[in-house]
Amino acid sequence: MIDKVFNKTISKQFEFDEEVASVFDDMLDRSVPFYKQMQKLSISFANNFLEDGSNVYDLGCSTASTLIELSKSSKYNLNLVGIDNSNAMLERASKKAKAFGVEIKLLNADIFDVDLKDAKVVFSNYTLQFIRPLNREKLVKKIYDSLEDGGVFIFSEKLVSKNSFLNKQFIDEYYSFKKTQGYSEFEISQKREALENVLIPYTEDENKKMIEDAGFKHCETVFKWVNFALFIAIK
Ligand SMILES: C[S@@+](CC[C@H](N)C(=O)[O-])C[C@H]1O[C@@H](n2cnc3c(N)ncnc32)[C@H](O)[C@@H]1O
Ligand SMILES: O=C(O)C(=O)C[C@]1(C(=O)O)C=C[C@@H](O)C=C1
């Protein structure tokens, strides 16, 4: 279904509710530049660290697109676990996984409450940005502790620039991108307001520092378009 959520006046903050979930795949595809390419890259990098029986977690899995695509492309027999606290998202995830014949354990839970046992790969795409900063650092430490040695944390985030002049250009470029994707100025400004104080982006350096502070040996930006990036961190 086509995303028209912000085509009408909205007075509440952004939520992953039934209305957003019902159009979410289209929303991501049209709102995140190079979404599909970044997803393909994250899967391709993950495959290099996997083997039969590996545990793979997706934190904030939404409709489970990443785990479904991973399962379709991987030659390994994997234990796939998707975690999300939006029931509306997980209902879609479950239907999609069934339709593709992919076995995924879907957990309706807060990421903080789940024990991520012996993880080989942890994905979290565009989700850390929705976690309050102090908790975000704690979550990354928890991910680090859960990973096996040599395991990887693969994550994507919206970014800000620490240079205010460039940051303004980041935003302008991003809004031009959204217009090319068919969103109107009204939809763009409605969504911007709804995301205020809900989506809190870090700079690229802040993301890397958070990863290094948690103990990761190495963190690389593997893809970047203006204010969106894909990172891979190795334990
Ligand atoms: C932007 S979406 C993630 C998109 C998805 N990773 C993808 O690439 O298709 C963020 C998701 O994180 C979930 N989420 C946010 N905070 C969470 C939390 N504390 N625990 C579990 N899920 C959470 C939301 O319900 C939402 O589905
Ligand atoms: O539309 C925006 O402004 C966005 O920031 C895109 C974005 C994201 O980056 O997570 C915001 C909310 C939805 O989860 C989907 C995409």
From TrEMBL:
EC nos: 2.1.3.-
Methyltransferase domain sequence ranges: 56-151
InterPro entries, per the entry: CmoA (IPR005271), Methyltransf_25 (IPR041698), SAM-dependent_MTases_sf (IPR029063)
Organism encoding this protein: Aliarcobacter vitoriensis
Function noted in UniProt: Catalyzes the conversion of S-adenosyl-L-methionine (SAM) to carboxy-S-adenosyl-L-methionine (Cx-SAM).
Record family assignment: Belongs to the class I-like SAM-binding methyltransferase superfamily. Cx-SAM synthase family.
Transferase among keywords: yes
Single GO MF annotation: S-adenosyl-L-methionine binding
Record's catalysed reaction(s): prephenate + S-adenosyl-L-methionine = carboxy-S-adenosyl-L-methionine + 3-phenylpyruvate + H2O
Annotated protein name in UniProt: Carboxy-S-adenosyl-L-methionine synthase
Alphabetical list of Pfam families matching this protein: Methyltransf_25 (PF13649)
HAMAP family: Cx_SAM_synthase
Residues involved in S-adenosyl-L-methionine binding: 35, 60-62, 84-85, 110-111, 125, 192
Keywords: S-adenosyl-L-methionine, Transferase
Keyword S-adenosyl-L-methionine: yes
NCBIfam families: carboxy-S-adenosyl-L-methionine synthase CmoA (TIGR00740)
Database matches in SUPFAM superfamilies: S-adenosyl-L-methionine-dependent methyltransferases
GO biological process: tRNA wobble uridine modification
